[in-house]
Design a protein that fits this description.
Blueprint lengths: L5 E7 L4 E7 L5 E2 L14 E4 L8 E5 L9 E11 L10 E9 L5 E7 L16 E7 L1
Antiparallel strand pairs: 1-5, 1-7, 2-3, 2-6, 4-5, 6-9, 7-8
């Protein structure tokens, strides 16, 4: 997994295709749709896209690029494909670990009991929001 100024690592509780989605303070979205380090992602990048297991998926800002913008980040879990889909009987638990240089790691966990596939609109009111944090 890539490391650097900031790293956001997603895992989930059972095999399937889950996806990490991050909205930066500048309202840039980083996900499997927009995975590469560029102005469009505030220089964050997705280095792992796990389509069959329980993760991890990792979005990070390398020390060799620009530092992440300051402000609030939103981290979401998109359930792309699971069999069975998330229900109260077959929940999916998503966990995100946030690593920030010089700070204590943050860990967010959310129990999903319904399916939500179109998870690219990640913000404070999103159904699939796992957590938010401030950088630096």
């Amino acid at each position: 997994l890539g490391i650097g100024y900031l790293s956001c690592i997603l895992t989930w509780s059972r095999d399937g295709d889950g996806d990490i989605v991050i909205r930066t303070p500048n309202n840039k979205i980083i996900s499997y749709v927009n995975p590469n380090s560029s102005i469009a992602t505030d220089f964050g990048q997705l280095d792992v896209d796990d389509k069959t297991g329980t993760g991890p998926e990792n979005i990070f800002w390398s020390n060799s690029t620009s530092a992440p913008p300051s402000g609030t980040y939103y981290v979401c879990f998109s359930q792309y494909e699971f069999n069975p889909n998330a229900t109260s009987q077959y929940p999916i638990i998503a966990t995100v670990k946030i690593k920030r240089v010089g700070n204590t790691d943050l860990i967010f966990t959310k129990n999903f009991t319904s399916n939500y596939r179109n998870g690219l609109n990640c913000n404070s009111t999103s159904f699939h929001l796992v957590g938010s944090f401030t950088y630096p």
